[in-house]
């Protein structure tokens, strides 16, 4: 049986990957096994785990805090990723790594292609972009999946923040001038499993399959509309969502105004496409209600 090492234990994507990858021997490497804040240890520790494939959904993901904790963000999102990629290049071990829509500056008005110019507006996005570049320059057999606006019933995310606020508030102000594609962590895990199945079946990654792929739920919306939709799906009818401009919700990190990603490359190369964000949201709400 093929051994898959998934890095991170309690993250959103990691949590759902553990549920869907049951056909494989799964090694869930939490911080006690692989600490990404100590990049220099990683090659030796990875060798001990003998992975057939490595999936890395672990990252420094605190967008605003990253503006202060610059070193921590770069250590985890760039330096650790560089060591993982160098291990994968040396051992010819396929790597599936996650990146973000926040590598873009948000000035576009049609969905971003993988070949479009990047221009992160904050430290988190810049550190994730540096991680992508480290993988590409290591020449590792790697796929970089750029996803966006990840939510679920686990961990810290906008969906749970809104449901939490709804318990004490009947009115919320939410930005309506940032447009993107909310992506359910379960949809990510299911799409990632399809990719793993293909890589295992092929016996590895073909050279022409390496590189960056956009990987979000289909469609687009604003955070304000997403808030309204998630309340509706959860039968919460007593909370009013007031749309506001980002200038009325100042944050340490600037977010891109538009970060919709075009997913055609993944569909063309691997035949994989994630569901529409509205379909996935209904699934997530069903899971919320069943808890
Ligand atoms: N969340 C989002 O909205 C988006 C996320 N992404 C990217 O997708 C990927 C998955 O995100 P998501 O699941 O939401 O992330 P989470 O914030 O839910 O989880 C982060 C994971 O990283 C692990 N981690 C953090 N620091 C370390 C460390 N020093 N050593 C080992 N592990 C560490 C955490 O470990 P522990 O379990 O111990 O806490 C956790 O498992 C990331 O690469 C992220 O950049 C892209 C776009 C949007
Ligand atoms: C809680 C809250 C947030 N907002 C705004 C702030 C921000 O512009 C937007 C989203 O807020 P959050 O801080 O939850 O989301 P944010 O941390 O920016 O989420 C990002 O996380 C990283 C990891 C990614 O990679 C991105 O794709 C993206 O998902 O909503 C409101 O307008 N009203 C509110 O009450
Ligand atoms: Mg956040």
Word description of this protein:
Its EC number is 1.1.1.133. It comes from Arenicella xantha. Keywords: NADP, Oxidoreductase. Pathway: Carbohydrate biosynthesis; dTDP-L-rhamnose biosynthesis. It is an enzyme of class 1 (oxidoreductase). By secondary structure, the protein is α/β, with parallel strands linked by helices. It has a single domain, classed as NAD(P)-binding Rossmann-like Domain (Rossmann fold), CATH 3.40.50.720. Helix content is about 40%, strand content about 15%. It has 9 helices and 12 strands. The strands form 4 sheets. It has a 6-stranded parallel β-sheet with strand order 2-1-3-4-5-10, sandwiched between helices. The chain has a two-stranded parallel sheet with strand order 6-9. A two-stranded parallel ribbon has the order 7-12. Helix 3 links the parallel strand 3 and strand 4. It is globular. The chain starts with a strand and ends with a helix. The mean pLDDT is about 95. The structure holds NADPH dihydro-nicotinamide-adenine-dinucleotide phosphate, dtdp-4-keto-L-rhamnose and magnesium ion. Dtdp-4-keto-L-rhamnose binds next to helix 5 and strand 7.
Protein traits:
single chain, 291 residues, alpha/beta, Rossmann fold, globular, binds NADPH dihydro-nicotinamide-adenine-dinucleotide phosphate, binds dtdp-4-keto-L-rhamnose
Q: Please state the structural category.
A: alpha/beta
The stretches of 5 or more residues where confidence is low (pLDDT under 50) are: none
Shape by Cα distribution: globular
Total strand segments? 12
Write the CATH homologous superfamily. NAD(P)-binding Rossmann-like Domain
Q: Total number of helical segments?
A: 9
CATH class: Alpha Beta
User: Which range does the strand content fall in?
Assistant: 15-25%
CATH topology: Rossmann fold
- Domains (count): 1
Largest sheet: 6 strands, parallel
Query: Which strand order spans the largest sheet, edge to edge or round the barrel?
Result: 2-1-3-4-5-10
Radius of gyration: 19 Å
Mean pLDDT comes to 97
Distance between the termini: 33 Å
* List of distinct ligands in this structure: NADPH dihydro-nicotinamide-adenine-dinucleotide phosphate, dtdp-4-keto-L-rhamnose, magnesium ion
Element order, helices and strands?
EHEHEHEHEEHEEEHEEHEHH
Helix content: 25-40%
Based on the coordinates given, report the CATH architecture.
3-Layer(aba) Sandwich
GO molecular function, one term: dTDP-4-dehydrorhamnose reductase activity
Pathway: Carbohydrate biosynthesis; dTDP-L-rhamnose biosynthesis
Organism: Arenicella xantha
GO biological process, one term: dTDP-rhamnose biosynthetic process
